[in-house]
Amino acid sequence: MEIKTEIIINAKPSEVWEVFTDFQNYPQWNPFVKSLTGEVKEGNQIKIELPGMNFKPVVLTLEENKELTWLGHLWFKGLFDGEHSFQLTDNGDGTTKFEQSEIFSGILLPLFKKNLLTTTKDGFEAMNRELKARVENSKKD
Question: Most-buried pick from 16, 56, 105, 131 (CB within 10 A)?
């Protein structure tokens, strides 16, 4: 099962990336990812705090100004897994398409499916909106 959201941000990918990867400031603006700690580097385990859930995914992809992907598990692989991806696409007109998606799998997926399609998707969209506002407002300063 996949959830995918996107938003157009009136800024270059490098400007979006700068705000997006300023993880220490997430508590100030990010309604979905309350905190992200650890060295964000391919192969490293990081700590993520979401509303009502903490987990320690492994960073799969980190490509500056383009993509961050991690893979998390609930307790152990195969029970409930999520591969979360953030992708930035340069639209060539001074704007960036910011996509946030997650592919869920595992034997417990049917138990979580309804909540994922509502609460989790809403969380993605709220984060996208707040990122857009923060990036665009920082350009006005």
Answer: 16
**Is 73 exposed, middle or buried (CB count within 10 Å of its CB: 0-12, 13-18, 19+)?**
middle
73: DSSP letter:
E
Q: What is the architecture, at CATH level 2, of domain 2-22+61-140?
A: 2-Layer Sandwich (3.30)
Q: Which residues pair with 103 in a beta bridge?
A: 2, 83
What is the tens place of the pLDDT at every residue in 7-46? 999 999 999 999 999 999 999 999 999 999 999 999 999 9
Q: Name the β-bridge partners of 102.
A: 3, 84
What is this structure's pTM?
0.93
Within the chain, residue ranges assigned H as helices are 13-20, 26-29, 109-115, 121-140
Query: 78-91: per-residue pLDDT in tens?
Result: 889 999 999 999 99
Distance, in Å, from the CA atom of 100 to the CA atom of 67, rounded to the nearest integer, reads: 10
